[in-house]
Amino acid sequence: MKPDEESARGLAQVEGYLLLNAEVxxxxxxxxxxxxxxxxxxxxxxxxxxxxxxxxRMAVCRESLTRIAARAAELRGxxxxxxxxxxxxxxxxxxxxxxxxxxxxxxxxxxxx
Length: 113
Fold this sequence. Notes:
Elements lengths: L2 H34 L6 H69 L2
Helix pairs in contact: 1-2
């Protein structure tokens, strides 16, 4: 792997780590806010509810990211196929244009003799 690719991969991993930590922190804040609305809970119950809340939120986050990653890969494949198709057409049109111009130049030079 090239150094630039390694750097990009490392930065992506750091970014992912930071985003995950931010998501966990936000889930914990929301769990505390949620259990704050339930004043009858004991401390142990409050901790259990917060733990389950955070675990559920992380599971939902993981499922969402998995779906998004799958869709991104699917779109990448579709866009790559479409790009290849357009590139092939562009090359074909360019080749035809060169052929037509060459033919016209040949005809003009033959007629001009």
